[in-house]
Amino acid sequence: MSPLPATIPALVRTRVRAAVRRPARLTPEEAEARTLLLRLCSLLLQYPDADLAAARPVLTSSVAALPPSPAARQLAAFTDWFTRQETDALERHYVEMFDLRRKSSLYLTYYLHGDTRRRGMALLTLAQRYRAAGWDTDGGELPDHLPVVLEFAALTGPGRGEAPLRQHRRGLELIHRALTDADSPYRHVLAALITLLPPPTEADLLAVAELAAQGPPNEEVGLDPYGAGEFAPPGAFVPPEQAPPTLARPAETHRQEDR
């Protein structure tokens, strides 16, 4: 979007920009397809344990039934690979991509706040957002885990439901870039998700480049004041077994180490 004239009052400029970035009003059919896309992305980004592996035929047929779109094509490319892999190979690849690489961690607030106390407050705010919408995650995962954020978006809708995704757009771009650099088929799931979001601004792209080069912010003090480890950074927190509606990977795989 080209810059708005400086003569336009600041409040008006802000509202115009917000309108441009706000999701367009959807028809009931479009809303249903979008909800299914978000839920499929949530499922496909969960740890591929035996239950998820067994559901691959249903997931593949659900993707094939989606209306044609760039997002649907990306998910079809992923499920084509997903269905041809042995379960143990899927598990190893998932751990390699999401548990052992900081730049493709699925914990979104890490990219915005890094290992700082601000991350604890961001997690608390996100959990409060879920409760205010009447959604209880049962504490099976941190509230910023991408499959959880996607499930909330699918349940709540494009407005406030997708607000956390828009807020963490830069983190999503970085995950997609890292997965692409690693030639991981999971890049297709992130690409599908990104097609549902407003286009990145120049500031977004610059911030992603800076994150890729320098990493998120860091500080010596931990996040203990916000829950005695409950909101610890990746690598320090071992979440309990995942509860519905999302599926979790085994707790012992939750490590975040630089390659």
TrEMBL record:
Protein transport keyword on record: no
Keyword Nucleus: no
GO molecular function: metallochaperone activity; unfolded protein binding
Alphabetically ordered keywords of this record: Nitrate assimilation
Region (Disordered): 216-259
Superkingdom to which the source organism belongs: Bacteria
Any single biological process term in GO: chaperone-mediated protein complex assembly
Record-linked InterPro entries: DMSO/NO3_reduct_chaperone (IPR020945), NO3_reductase_chaperone_NarJ (IPR003765), TorD-like_sf (IPR036411)
Annotated PANTHER family: NITRATE REDUCTASE MOLYBDENUM COFACTOR ASSEMBLY CHAPERONE (PTHR43680), NITRATE REDUCTASE MOLYBDENUM COFACTOR ASSEMBLY CHAPERONE NARJ (PTHR43680:SF2)
Protein's name according to its UniProt entry: Nitrate reductase molybdenum cofactor assembly chaperone
Organism: Streptomyces ferrugineus
